[in-house]
Batch of 2 targets.
Target 1
Amino acid sequence: MSSGTRIVLLGRQGAGKGTQCLRLSRHYVVPHISTGDMLRAAVREDSALGRSVEKTIGGGGLVSDELIIEVVRGRLNKADTQQRGYILDGFPRTVVQAEALDLIAQDLPLLGAVDLVVPRDLVLNRLSVRRVCRDCGANYTVTGVVRSPWSCDTCGGDVVLRDDDTPDAINRRLDLYESQTAPLISFYGGTQRLHEVDGVGSQDEVFDRITEVIDRAGGGS
Ligand code: ADP
């Protein structure tokens, strides 16, 4: 079995998955695999994949299980993942995807799924002030000072409002989370791989809670 951290981060949109995954990926030196970032990059590149998913993403819907499973299969076969492991963000999002992941990752089995728990009313507030770097995915919060153009402190990319961070698309994504993604809690709970972490608190507090769970699960080695 390969060493390294191999985890999935679950949680509502705006729960802080993206921010925590970036930190975890640096801390454990493991690739952060965000399916949302991969799809948005494909849209920017205007590739065949990007063209096929652009409308779905903009409207806050889910792309087909079949398509996203192939995208993740390709990514998990890359050398960095094979050697270091993976931190999956945004995948799996349905039970079908979770079952597929168990098959794809047979040689690199998942150590656990961390569910970052933040109530819906709190994430709605967070999403309304969220801005995201188009290039590296770093998250920012609007504080009232208008920064135009706004460049990312990490990579210099454009910091923008995501197309799907409009009120309608946000509500659609949160509804889909309840119907499609929340069942993953039972899926991983039923196989003793679920770790619930309180996602309310400072970024440092939440990070410490997550690393404690990962280290206990044996993913910090
Ligand atoms: P969020 O979790 O905030 O909705 P992501 O950045 O994870 O955002 O994903 C953005 C969009 O990409 C999703 O709304 C969906 O359209 C698509 N997407 C990403 N991952 C998946 C997935 N595993 N299954 C289906 N669609 C996905």
Target 2
Amino acid sequence: MSVRNLGVASLLGLACISFSSAAEKPPTDPPDAGLARIEALIARMTPQEKAGQLSLYGPADTNIPNNPQAGWRNGQQETADVRAGRITGLFNNAGLEGKLRLQQIAVRESRLGIPLIFGADVIHGFRTMFPMPLAEVSSWEPALAERTARAAAVEATADGFRWTLAPMVDIARDARWGRGLEGVGEDVYLARQFAAARVRGFQGSHLSNADSMLATPKHFAAYGAAEGGLDYNPSEVSERTLREVYLPPFRAAIDAGALSVMSAFNEIGGIPSTANPALLTGVLRDEWKFKGFVVSDYTADEELVEHGYAANPREAAKQAFMAGTDVSMQSGLYMRYLPDLVATGEVPMARLDEAVRRVLWVKYKLGLFDNPLRGLDGPPAAARAENPEFIALARESARRSIVMLKNERMLLPLPKAGTKIALIGPFAEGTTDLLGAWSLFPGQTAPVGIDQGLRAALGTHSSLTIVRGSNVESPLPGGIDAAVAAARDADVVLLAIGESEKMSGEARSRSDIGMPQAQQDLAEAVAATGKPVVVLLSNGRAMALKGAVRNARAILVTWFLGVQTGNAIADVVFGDFNPSGRLPVSFPQTAGQVPYYYAHKRTGRPTPEGAPGTLFKTRYLDATNEALYPFGFGIGYAPVRYDNVELSQDRMTLSDTLRVRATVTNTGQREAEEVVQLYTAQRAASVTRPVRELKGFKKVRIAPGASTVVEFTLTAADLQFIGRDMKPTVEPGEFDLWVAPSAASGIRRHFVLTRD
Ligand code: BGC
């Protein structure tokens, strides 16, 4: 029975297990000599040693901020386990010394000398912290993400890490979920580009290079679809939505060469993802031919008991392992139970060998067998020092991640000379809340705060008054009075408000995605002075903006921008950089609209255009269905105009290529950078289709007053969807197409797809 053809029942639960036999070895790379070496090792390994190759731990005696109860193992036990071959590797164990010591024990003192692998959550930088991944998606420049991932790999490998637990490629459409900012936004097409780019960046030109890191797309699968936006909650998604929305970014990452995948904490339709054979074996192995290994998320195998899926930890280990989770992270369950499960015949030896083979093969591809100590006994000092190139890249990446939502009457950019600026808000000063959720490791380059960035840009030209005004979530005694006084005395207010770093990330869901009340009160009071206000929004998610925040004259979405936050913000505020970011997630009007995303389905009762108040239509009583700021939206300092959208033909066959051209003109006074977006929608099909789907984008620079012609091509493959039989299909029919500056606007055209 093939898992692929099982339809809904397959992904949502049928325990169809298949594992390849020893005859089906990973293909040609590494060359046969390597494969033979792996087989020879497997033949010599005891079941305990095999289970050891499938057991990964955080560092002993250490509590890692993002990993609760990490330190249950002690150093002595760790050393003994390495010597006895009971560990495949460690993660988040910063520092070269410890790694060198353990690697030496592994290769010199363990019976088979199998090298350890050292992994880490290198999510948005290592020493030089780059913008949070979602922020960087706002650049709509996958090549930029590839560069920052490469830089992160260069720094992390200089600390002995050859494996990153990234990129996170979970689509997230519910802004309440705290982990959206670690990911790739709401859109499938954009997510696929960034997933692939980051894998290429981490892994470099060849996995065996000393500065290459094995990439791990996570969390497989649909972790971002957590019900109610509550972290770890079940994901109630249909198989079609899973295949159409949540799986493609993983596929893109694997096609880009990723050789490990992390399972998710969630369950889908009653089956926890860490024990879902149809996902881990059916989709990953049988359909996608994935050759790497699957690692559980942190204790996710053990958690099968709490899920109510396994009666006890032994059963949990068996379920996870037989479903296709090759490596157990942190729980120790595989070490404890796999040898016995094999002895009793509950787990076939062939499955154990298969998992070990995958792990050894990846270690081999990393070059660990040939050169286990490489980089551990002291990489070149230059590789470990602060790197000015990476800092410049961090600034570039940060300013390209900023999205300008509003700039009434061209309030921005501010002149540097002669302006009295009041910088107000809990994020105005200091260096916390700049880096984002995954800045774990010691030795990070000190971040530049907003106040520092502004001061550096202003020099002695202008006056800058700084007032905190409020705490993040509670009032500051006297704060509002001081803020109002500063605002009254200034020409313009920069209001640095929003979410703190700790309000998003793992286990940091919010039921209300609005501005905390204390800061809303601050914003209202400052606005009441009548002074022009620029909101500098700190945020880890799309927020529901209201009142004085929504009505500010200018709004810059600044997320968590990393080490160069202050400089990047100053670059945009004073016009040294023309903002070019576009939203990777829709900003709803109210918190009650979430989950909110542009590529939603129609209903039988859509709201008539121009008559939003009509009853018995799909609408809330108290809000329209539009986004406040749609996906893809963002403005710069030079306005642009779209026209002349032309299709090469208005009928295309399944084998044709449709060419779409549009003219985009910069009507402003300075160079524009525009993200020209292509969307389509099929009017009727055997399965209903979203109102719009992104099919392409191009970021172009246009000189003042100049026009450029942007061209896209579309083939039938771009118009694919998951058919009734759960397989990709293309159906002839009528399509709308938009060339647009966002998901809620653009110039519409129409074409027909015919069979021949
Ligand atoms: C997170 C993963 C992370 C792992 C190891 C888990 O809690 O869900 O994304 O890689 O911890 O730190």
